[in-house]
Amino acid sequence: MTAHSLTINQQVHPHQLKRVLLIEDNDVNRMLLNDYLGYCGYNVRSLSNGTALFSTIESFQPDLILLDLKLPGFDGYWLLEQIQQHSYLPKIPIIVVSAFAFKADKERAINLGACRYLVKPVNLTALIRIIKEELAYKCI
Fold first, then answer.
1. Out of 1, 9, 21, 138, which residue is the most buried by the measure of CB atoms under 10 Å away?
2. Is 131 helix (H, G, I), strand (E, B) or coil?
3. Which domains does the chain have, with CATH numbers?
């Protein structure tokens, strides 16, 4: 993942904190994304697998979900399918951040309800831009 410094204008102010749920099994990637998103002004809760997904969604009420596909236990595709079966959950934008780079993986994730698909390593500046776009679109 590549990082670029943010200008003051790009940072989100604390009174605008949006909640991002990060589901990533790789400890280093999870810590990097968690720290970077926090630095950018997001309230982040992270999970290393999908077992507590629904209880975390209920308690944390995320505005957006970042989801890895290769997870222990339940993979990201299965989680996307489960999310779509709950009528109140598909309204949460889901951005897949995965090492799976094949077109078929992207198409499957999008067909299962992901709004965006990013291939690792992710450019962190682009990720923040995409998160802002999805949150702005959600508010329309």
1. 21
2. helix
3. 12-138 (3.40.50.2300)
Judged against a pLDDT cut of 90, whether residue 13 lies above it is answered with no
Which of 1-10, 48-57, 100-109, 122-131 is predicted with the least confidence, judged by mean pLDDT?
1-10
**pLDDT given for residue 64 in this prediction:** 97
pLDDT surpasses 80 at 1: no
Buried b / exposed e along 18-46 (16+ C-beta atoms within 10 A):
bebbbbbbeeebbebbbebbeebbbbbbb
Question: Taking the model in full, what pTM does it have?
Answer: 0.86
What's the order of all strands across the beta sheet hosting 116-119? 43-47, 19-23, 64-67, 94-98, 116-119
3-state DSSP assignment of residue 110: helix
Question: Is residue 107's pLDDT more than 50?
Answer: yes
Structure tokens at 20: 């991002």
Residues 110-130 as b/e (b if ≥16 CB within 10 A, e otherwise) read eebbbbbbbeeebebbebbeb
Helix (H, G, I), strand (E, B) or coil at 42: coil
| Other beta carbons within 10 Å of 10 | 14
